[in-house]
Amino acid sequence: MQQITPTILSEVIEKVLNRIEERLLNSHEKQLTTQEYIELNVLFQEEVLAKAFHIIDTQTIVSYRQENTTNELIEFAGSWPSQTVYKLFPFINFCHCTFFKDEILKAPEPAYYTCEHVIAARLARILNKLKIEILPKHKFNFIQKQIAPQD
Ligand SMILES: [Zn+2]
Question: 23, 94, 112, 124: which has the highest count of C-beta atoms within 10 A?
Answer without folding.
Answer: 124
